[in-house]
UniProtKB/TrEMBL annotation:
SUPFAM superfamilies in the record: HAD-like
CDD domains linked to this entry: HAD_5NT
Biological source species: Agrobacterium cavarae
Annotated protein name in UniProt: Pyrimidine 5'-nucleotidase
Highest taxon of source: Bacteria
InterPro entries: HAD-like_sf, HAD-SF_hydro_IA, HAD_sf, Pyr-5-nucltdase
Pfam families: Hydrolase (PF00702)
């Protein structure tokens, strides 16, 4: 049975939650900041240089790996045995100045009862830089990154299980926030509440078909375009 995801926070649904797990890119900062487009360009350039392809060919291959393996990195490791550290270093050589402090989000995260984590397919260095720029880094107990995941990216179930085991996460008392629908399948199966972040204005945003939520996505409990507002909505009932 499919039940349509809800758009506003129902505090009672989260009253049991003490483990808060957040994706980083396009989740802790909105899609329109477009930080990821810089990483995307760096990855295209990396593929082009590695395989001596023109940018267009490199982009096609990059996107194929992203689709088939969850990340470009995973595809390049499997097919070309590249050095992941070198790749991560180059991919994340970006300008973070578009990210401004978000005190509203910081307060909302701080007010959540329990432990907070970042679970990202990027690197710790990237997560620290981004969350640092947003002024929210101190609110997180830990960052579980693609290196900790043994380079096996979300949506792989093993990666969530590895994270949960390492952090002794009580998944029945956990909530996961993500911008990619498929990355919420495993968390939901593990008993977590799932919240999908969507762009505030879809116009002009190019997304892959599989990046867009479908009516049949019954692994998504909530959909929101404003993380701070959603989290504040959870606090109201706790007072
Ligand atoms: Mg993301």
């Amino acid at each position: 049975m499919n039940t349509k995801p809800k758009n506003t926070a129902e505090p009672a649904d989260f009253a049991h939650v003490t483990e808060w797990v957040f994706d980083l890119d396009n989740t802790l900062y909105p899609h329109h900041i477009n930080l990821f487009s810089q990483i995307d360009r760096n990855m295209t350039a990396y593929v082009a240089e590695l395989l001596q392809l023109d940018p267009e060919e490199a982009r096609v291959l990059q996107k194929r790996y992203y689709h088939e393996h969850g990340t470009t990195l995973q595809g390049l490791m499997i097919h070309y045995g590249i050095d992941p550290n070198d790749f991560l270093e180059k991919a994340h050589a970006i300008d973070y100045s578009a990210l401004l402090p978000d005190p509203e989000l910081g307060e909302a995260i701080k007010a959540l009862p329990g432990r907070k984590f970042i679970l990202t397919n990027g690197s710790v260095k990237h997560a620290e830089a981004a969350a640092g720029a947003l002024g929210i880094l101190d609110h997180f107990e830990d960052i579980f990154d693609i290196v900790a995941a043994g380079y096996l990216p979300k949506p792989a179930g093993q990666t969530y299980e590895k994270f949960a085991a390492l952090k002794q996460l009580d998944t029945k008392r956990a909530a996961m926030f993500e911008d990619l629908p498929r990355n919420l399948v495993a968390p939901r199966a593990m008993g977590m509440k799932t919240v999908l972040l969507v762009p505030r204005n879809l116009e002009g945003i190019v997304m892959e078909r599989w990046e867009i939520p479908a009516e049949t996505d019954d692994h998504i409990d909530y959909i929101t375009d404003n993380l701070s507002e959603f989290l504040v909505g959870l606090q109201d009932s706790r007072a």
